[in-house]
Known about the structure:
Elements lengths: L6 H13 L4 E5 L11 E5 L4 E6 L8 H12 L3 E5 L2 H13 L18 E2 L2 E2 L1
Parallel strand pairs: 3-4
Antiparallel strand pairs: 1-2, 2-3, 5-6
Amino acid sequence: MKDIISEKDLERTFSEKLNRTKKVWVIKLLSTFIKGLPDRMILCQGGYVGFAEIKTTGKKPTKIQLLIHSKLEALGFKVFVIDDLESRDAAISFFLRNVKEINNVPGKKGYLCSIKLKNKQI
């Protein structure tokens, strides 16, 4: 039997592991206008974009979430459903494989610039 891991813990560790690389930016999606958006949008250095729906172990996406996932996939975006350590780690590996080195970013060569919002460095 799988250990049950909360959505909160999976989201936190997923975001931390990717953001720590400085080559990926994981953004929490919040919308009052579109129901069913995935929890996170993942922006990889070099232009790759994907999404992650994160659930407590054993929980499944709702029908509206599955519909939105299908729409995103039809547009060519990858959507991961993460509900355990294995699916979390598979998604992390996938996004890190899609990082491309770039040379036209101000600041450190090959790294995303840090952004300052409301006196908070991200």
